């Protein structure tokens, strides 16, 4: 038998791309590919790309430039672009970089095996359809091979919200939910392969409607899966946090006390211009209800500074919202103009103003994050251990609040769930002792 062909995938962007990369590798597995972490050994290199900000998209072209050398060294090497840049730019990519053999969008990658046939015939392949056939049904069941204790599971895709800054509704298409019975089946397969914690994914995961009870209904179904210990979900939109989901945060033991609930801005004027469809007060009230259900819940968020029309007073409203809410974790970005989105046409905020606001917001957010980490010292958390640390005898895992926790121990295995007393905090992690 000939050696298996080797596939190298580089993943950019959000967790949904991480999930898609796994599924693409599995799908090409049927064509005799095994994954490699060495691009120089690969027969095929796939870049699974992100289009969310200009920098993310441009990075792909510089990466493709770097890959040219591999293609010169091995003319049989196939190079493919997948993900949201593939969807947004399609055939343009091949025009700009003629050495690209394959372009596949996020809704059509279940057709990769047929596309690979075309490549084997010496053709190029392009598929950025939003096909009628169900991608998830066409994909095979998950492999039985043992895997790590945590996994992502996409339950909902696409977005109908059309925030004025965002490309996702265009690159991922309309909101679609997978039926709950298939998700449960996939969760069972993951658990059989060693998974103990599943993070449910969707661009708007709490708009999930593949179960009569919405996302909460799905979570309660997953709660019954033996061997599954922890459930998380991301990313949520404030307007889709229904009562049942809030309630589940207080009553479902497997649902972890962590919630990523982006607000983007603290100014009503900017929220309106962004088409977020809620006010800052509605967000505050929502947070109050969530915290009433689960007081120790750790909140995370996303923020955009320098959205068109944002004044210093608007920005101060965002700072004020952050001070009022208190985030344990957050991501913040300078507004990036995305062609084809409504906000791209509006008068833009100056670059140096954006940068100054970003620095001020980030220093406030990292101060909050650090304060919350300090408040964990002395407490006992439950850690799911995921990997060995850099130093021998050190293990690293995540607490229920998604803090990275390291412990010096030789008596813990990957996949163990253990009580850990937090004894110190570093910038981005906690140090603890097994109880
Ligand atoms: N569905 C999620 C967000 C997906 S994109 C939600 O609604 O919250 C992830 C984050 O990227 C967004 O929350 C936003 O903060 C940021 N983002 C999206 N478009 C952007 C743009 N044009 N410029 C800067 N940041 C952007
Ligand atoms: Fe983008 Fe808004 Fe949809 Fe989130 S809700 S993916 S920010 S359009
Ligand atoms: Fe990026 Fe697409 Fe995710 S644009 S953030 S990879 S949905």
C-alpha end-to-end distance = 51 Å
Bound heterogens, unique: S-adenosyl-L-homocysteine, iron/sulfur cluster, FE3-S4 cluster
Number of strands: 19
**Fraction of residues in helix:** 25-40%
**Largest sheet: number of strands, sense, barrel closure:** 6 strands, parallel
Low-confidence parts, pLDDT < 50 over ≥5 residues? none
CATH topology (level 3) name of the domain at 5-127: Rossmann fold
> If strands are numbered along the chain, what order do they take across the biggest sheet?
2-1-3-4-5-6
Q: What structural class should be given to the helix and strand makeup?
A: alpha/beta
How much of the polypeptide forms β-strand, as a percent range? 15-25%
CATH class placement of the domain at 5-127: Alpha Beta
**What is the C-alpha radius of gyration, as a whole number of Å?**
22 Å
Q: Quick check: average pLDDT? A: 96
Principal-axis shape: globular
Question: Can you identify the CATH superfamily of the domain at 5-127?
Answer: Methylthiotransferase, N-terminal domain
How many individual helices? 14
CATH architecture heading of the domain at 5-127 = 3-Layer(aba) Sandwich
Describe the structure.
With 435 residues, this protein is of the alpha/beta class. Among the domains are: 123 residues, 3-Layer(aba) Sandwich (Rossmann fold); 113 residues, 2-Layer Sandwich (Transcription Regulator spoIIAA); 55 residues, Beta Barrel (OB fold (Dihydrolipoamide Acetyltransferase, E2P)). The chain is built from 14 helices and 19 strands. The strands form five sheets. The protein has a six-stranded parallel sheet with strand order 2-1-3-4-5-6, sandwiched between helices. The longest helix is centred in the C-terminal third of the chain and has 26 residues. The N and C termini lie far apart (51 Å). The mean pLDDT is 96. The site of FE3-S4 cluster (F3S) has 14 residues, from helix 1, helix 3 and helix 7.
């Amino acid at each position: 038998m000939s050696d298996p062909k080797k596939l190298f995938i580089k993943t950019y962007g959000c967790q949904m791309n991480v999930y898609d990369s796994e599924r693409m590798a599995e799908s090409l597995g049927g064509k005799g590919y095994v994954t490699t972490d060495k691009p120089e050994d690969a027969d095929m290199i796939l870049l699974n790309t992100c289009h969310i900000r200009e920098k993310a998209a441009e990075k792909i072209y510089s990466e493709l430039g770097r890959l040219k050398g591999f293609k010169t060294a091995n003319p049989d090497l196939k190079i493919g672009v997948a993900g949201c840049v593939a969807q947004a730019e399609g055939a343009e990519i091949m025009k700009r970089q003629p050495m690209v053999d394959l372009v596949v969008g996020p809704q059509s990658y279940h057709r990769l095996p047929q596309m690979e046939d075309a490549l084997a015939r010496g053709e190029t392949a392009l598929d950025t359809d939003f096909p009628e056939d169900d991608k998830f049904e066409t994909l095979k069941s998950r492999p039985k091979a043992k895997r790590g204790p945590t996994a992502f599971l996409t339950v909902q895709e696409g977005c109908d919200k059309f925030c004025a800054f965002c490309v996702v509704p265009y690159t991922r298409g309309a909101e679609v939910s997978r039926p709950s019975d298939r998700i449960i089946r996939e969760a069972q397969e993951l658990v059989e392969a060693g998974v103990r914690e599943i993070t449910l994914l969707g661009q708007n995961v709490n708009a999930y409607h593949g179960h009569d009870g919405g996302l909460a209904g799905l979570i309660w179904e997953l709660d019954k899966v033996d061997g599954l210990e922890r459930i998380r979900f991301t990313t949520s939109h404030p307007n889709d946090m229904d009562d049942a989901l809030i309630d589940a945060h207080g009553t479902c033991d497997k649902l972890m006390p962590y919630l990523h609930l982006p607000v983007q801005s603290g100014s009503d004027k900017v929220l309106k211009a962004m088409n977020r469809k809620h006010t800052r007060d509605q967000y505050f009230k929502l947070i109050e209800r969530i915290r009433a259900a689960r007081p120790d819940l750790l909140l995370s968020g996303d923020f955009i500074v320098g959205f068109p029309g944002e004044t210093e007073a608007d920005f101060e409203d965002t700072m004020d919202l952050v001070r009022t809410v208190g985030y344990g974790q957050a991501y913040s970005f300078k507004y990036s103009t995305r062609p084809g989105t409504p906000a791209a046409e509006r008068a833009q905020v100056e670059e140096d103003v954006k940068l100054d606001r970003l620095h001020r917001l980030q220093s406030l957010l990292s101060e909050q994050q650090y304060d919350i980490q300090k408040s964990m010292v002395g407490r006992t958390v439950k850690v799911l251990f995921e990997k060995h640390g850099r130093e021998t005898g050190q293990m690293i895992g995540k607490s229920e609040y998604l803090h990275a926790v390291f412990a010096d121990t030789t008596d813990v295995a990957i996949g163990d769930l253990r009580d850990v007393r937090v004894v110190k905090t570093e910038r981005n992690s906690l140090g603890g002792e097994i109880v």
